[in-house]
User: Fold these one by one.
Assistant:
Number 1:
Amino acid sequence: MQNNGWDEFEIGAMLRSFDGVAKDIPLKQPEDRNYSSSNSFTASVADWRIEKPLFNKDYCIDCQFCWIYCPDMSIIARDKKMVGVDMDHCKGCGICVEVCPTNPKSLLMFPEQADEEAELAGWPEKDKEEK
Amino acid sequence: MSEIKKIKNLKDFSTSADRFEGANLLCPGCAHSIIVREVLNATNDDLILSASTGCLEVCTAVYPYTSWDASWIHIGFENGSTAVAGAEAMHKALGNKGRLKQPDRNPKFISFAGDGASYDIGFQWISGCFERGHNMMHVVLDNEVYANTGGQRSSSTPIGSSATTSPAGRVSYGEKKNKKDMMAIMAAHGSPYVAQVSPNKWKNMVKAIQHGMEVEGPVFINAVSACTTEWKFAPEDTMALQDLATDSLVFPLYEIIDGTELNITYRPKNVVPVEEYLAAQGRFKHLFKDEYKYLIKEWQERVDAKWDYLQKREEARV
């Protein structure tokens, strides 16, 4: 990308979200899109996180509550299935964990430096105190 | 005419490909982007969008990045609605002259604005758009404060809320004026569809948005947007706050068709006391001191009176 200073930025300039001809964007998932370098999709806010959500698909019922309520488009859902979390764009707000209805939750927050495999192995058991 | 996107359930909805991208600079847990996603995912048609100055605009268009995958214009504080109205008028004029390159496409014209840009600063412009009858939709992201500039009061700020220009302290309990009834004002313009929605009731919201896109004429949508920074709650509680807002009837969800026909679109099974809604937010913390407790009672009475009024209007069909 050509880097212009703020005073070289022309009035009425246009930023393109995609390179080349962009067709049928609403029908294409991110991996099929040709993002340009001025699309914020190419940037990352991963360093905002203090805690990260980890996804345990053993307990997931694909209700998609996390997908609809994620403010950062970070829940990857394909073919009606929850696939995982986009760690480049997740800001670690924790909404997905709060709205997860399963018992135990299939998404939980862990410190950013936590090891995924170790945490998945030690996932909490089902909460027995359910009424 | 293009078809309405069929969304039967949440699994269906989750096959949508977002046209709003991550790595925008909205706070973690901001309800703004949840609202924007639900609006944009409600259709597969082309979109012509604008955002008036506010959190949404400054956070999604930080040079050299844009977070929008549709035509989006960066515009001033007051004239987001008129920019979109102008585009709509041009589209209509070119269509009449037969000069549209793809006349079969049916773009949707949507302007986003915060409550500051809708209730106060951009009010005259929105009123103009609605009076001229452009075929557009104006979506208000109502977080009841000028969150972008540090939490000054707007005319949407409710009584008792502590904002930086109406702080609570030794002599004051914060904001003293009640919230402007924007829904009634916009319905009085004769708008074909005016609705109050909340992203936690996604099905209700998507239905309202799709209806608004289909009707001819200016549509006003007031979306409740919990602000983690200015309402002062933990970012993971955004959806809990949205639930409290709708279930305590502080934000009743209803629609007004053609300025007269009022329908309540969501009736909570268990109505939560307003006190719980207030207690969940730092901006109302001072109301729980002994000398201000009477305000909570007044809040409850006000909310009940409003709910009564809405039910009576729904019954009377006027």
Number 2:
Amino acid sequence: MLNFFQLILIYAGVYAIMAIGQNCITGYTGMLSLCHAGFFCIGSYATAIMCKIFGLSFWLSLPAAAIVSGIIGFLIGVPTLRLKGDYLCIATLGLGEIIRNVATNLNPVGISQIPRAELFGYVFMSRNKWAFIILIWAFVLIFYLLFQRLLHSRIGRAMTAVREDEVAAASNGIDVTKYKIVSFVLGAAVGGIAGCFQTAYTLTVSPASYTFMVSVMVLCTVVLGGMGNGKAVILGAVIIQFISYFPQLTGLTNVIPAQAKQMIFGLILVVMMVWRPQGILGRDRFRYGSARRPLFAKKKEAGV
Amino acid sequence: MALLRIEDISVSYGNIRALSDVSMSVDEGDIVALIGANGAGKSTLMSAIVGLVPLQSGTVEYDGQAICQSKHQKLTTDLIVKKGIALVPEGRHVFADMTVEENLDMGAFMVRDSALIARKKEEMYDFFPILGARRKQKTRSLSGGEQQMMAIARALMSSPRLLLLDEPGLGLAPLVVQDIFSKIRIINEESRLTVFLVEQNARLALKSSDYGYVLENGRIVLQDTGENLLSNESVQKAYLGA
């Protein structure tokens, strides 16, 4: 029971980091991308290869994973981000699958026995879950703060404008393509970092863990929590992981079929779209003019 | 001197030719109107000026510099806008989920000087008092006329030299349209801002303008001063219902 609870916390952390990246793409800039599993995969593989084959430490592979995912995101983004709405969605969906299939064809078994992460001589053993929980959630916090800052910056303001109305954004002097790419690359890089943590925890990578379902789950997380709201997507990640592991947590694996999870996600998406399209917590309004006040200041946004 | 010069531009959407060899010019400090029926190509011409649709042939020159050219069009919309052209797109295109104030801030995206932005905003609130009263309201909750004023104010935030207005009277009550046109005239007189507008309401547009062009099926068929066009027989027949 406690074991599963810890597992949920770890995966919720990994998904929260992914969801922060997806939120940058979908929540801030309004691009419906469905290839986060691909970036997750690239980050995982980059970490595995760096640690195992090149013998680099986990802490060096972390930025490397982000950079590799970011570069792939850029290469994917430049041609596809001209597309809008459904077309972008389909193109990214395909690209996510391409990444997974490339990984499968290179090595269907994946990579295992990856060296463990270390910090000041402390080795993160997979048995000791609390250490991982602290490590991952520390990074969730870091990325939450960074992306919160981004949202309330000039770049975030441009992204918001692009999401709201591309024609209006362009006619106000905002380079729409540039900010779409920036947003996509940042989201991809963060997705890669989530992959890095996944590898550090499981110590294996296998192409089977980066299916389309992962992308859907990440999108679901963002929609459930609230698009464009950092706190909300983290909450969404916890809820989604809790639902995922609910059968194991309650010991009802015999009663609840594994497919029930996917049905529940589908149901959540539909229910949210109909009754609460803004997500559980709703959108975090950008506040550029007053962005310089403390991050944890009380919300005193005047109601409309 | 012509601030904006359009030379022989053609635009097609697939097989459909929207503009054929259109040439015109807008002199600095003038209000120039382009009138025409639905589907004449008015909005296409506006979009072509700011690079939202590609040209098939011809050149758009602004302040002596080519900003759009056929085939190898160099500038994207945001760069054209940075040169001092502000566009109020057709159908307003406001940021509906942002407040009036945030919309105006967006209009000043290119301006880095926050004191100037604050001053400009106050100017806009003085000039459009209704926007001042509603500055904290979401734009979605504004009426059509108010949204149009806000779209104009937002365009003025970047202190442009040339203001492009695409159908400022679209879907608005006649009194509101008159109000908007009187504001446009005041802006033009006070700050010598050059205005190029496209409008279906030909009478009002020509009355407010120094010069006018008539667009029909993608071609300029008439051009003259606003007054002369108003008294032109064929214009009266086709557009003024006389």
